[in-house]
Amino acid sequence: MTATTLPTADPQFSGSETDRLLDGLERLAAADLSYELAMTARLRFLDWTGCVLAGAASEKLRITALLNAGGDGPAPIIGTDRTSAPLTAALVNGMHSHVAELDDGHRYGITHAGGPLIAALLAMGHDPRMTSNSLLKGIVVGYEAALRVAIACQPEAKLNGWHGSGVFGVIGAAIGTGVALGYDRSQLNAALAAAATSASGMVKAFSEGSELKPYNAGQPALTGLASALTAGAGFPGPQGILDGPHGLVQMLRGSPANPTAFDVSTPYCIETVYLKPYASCRYCHAPVEAALNLKARHRISAQDVARVEVETYRLAVHKHDHTEIEGPYSARLGIPYCVGAALALRETGMAAFTPGALSNPETLRIMRATHVLEDPALTALVPARRAARLHLYLTDGTRLTEQVDLPRGEPEVPLTAEDLHTKFIDLATFAGLAPETAQSIAAHILNPTTSILDLLTKMDKD
């Protein structure tokens, strides 16, 4: 079996960043998907589906109001027996993908590309132009589009207050949908331009008790799909939307990017995302893993823990060091709570954020005794490493230390296909699907000869 290969980008290319990116995306869209790349897209779809099922089960009451306002249509709302208009379905499924904080991400791009992208694509699954193969190709190219721009803009965009999932997710959703629907170069350029002018998402939007973080995955699905549909309707866009002082890249990062950041090459971005084993913000994962390692190695009980000190990099401290929580959303974003749940309950998945877990006295005691500090030496390692050093102080005076440089799920320490299958089954059964139904869905998604579009009705939940 051969890998997908593309002509090498010309290192002397003198065109714009926009042209450089679109040239590469066009080449990738025109090439036949290798078996390996197609299976990678199927694994991303499986992971996304589990996240959406869990999110739908967690937010079924509040989402009903959105669905009732969104109008009828053919697009499925995963995890329910409802369908809706495509734009509404993109919004809701995109939001659901991020509720559990288990969706994939990228440490160099500092963004979650898969949630908005696949939500937008699935909303158009009824369109006769979309096939299972074009859906998979849209997934691959959509990841590439979102993450190439994200990598070019980060970390400056994050430090300027932009939330990457909203800002870059819209680009992946627009380009991925356009590729899946067979758009030509001018239409893809228009979709990119519409997405760029729609790009938004603020870190401040999910601070201070806000529960809007999933919206930053839903709105780029909606606006990315709207961007693609606008382009497909015949509205042309300007050339060079990413370029220059008033282009998207410099507006987000405040300075020009390295032009080679826009080169589409192997490994493709879909192959370099991280996949989450723990249901919390990725900044919490290295400390959580360190806590789990120490707990297992030394057979520590919650009552043994006097206090915890976490040293980590700067981005993981700001907005993630709080020692009080206001509900599951703030708990998933807080290193102290997540470390407390790992040490007290040995829970890191959905069970760590139930009402009972959120009020567990030992978890809350350890949370309030956990201090998160920046280590400039660890900050200097980012993004090559996202490390945390955890010092565990026991009641008998013992101090134990564990450092995790890269948590599980990064390409260097990957989750296996079996791990992802188990994760999916756990999330699907959490959402109320029968185990045999969950197994059937997973088998369908991962069967290289089946159409993903054929299984949508199997993901309804009565």
From TrEMBL:
Residue stretches making up the MmgE/PrpD N-terminal domain? 26-255
Question: Where does the record place the MmgE/PrpD C-terminal domain?
Answer: 278-431
One annotated GO molecular function is: lyase activity
Alphabetized Pfam families for the sequence: MmgE_PrpD_C, MmgE_PrpD_N
Classify the source by domain of life. Bacteria
Family as reported in the entry's similarity comment:
Belongs to the PrpD family.
Q: How is this protein named in the record?
A: 2-methylcitrate dehydratase PrpD
Q: Which organism was this protein described from? A: Tritonibacter scottomollicae
Ranked from the top, the taxonomy reads: Bacteria, Pseudomonadati, Pseudomonadota, Alphaproteobacteria, Rhodobacterales
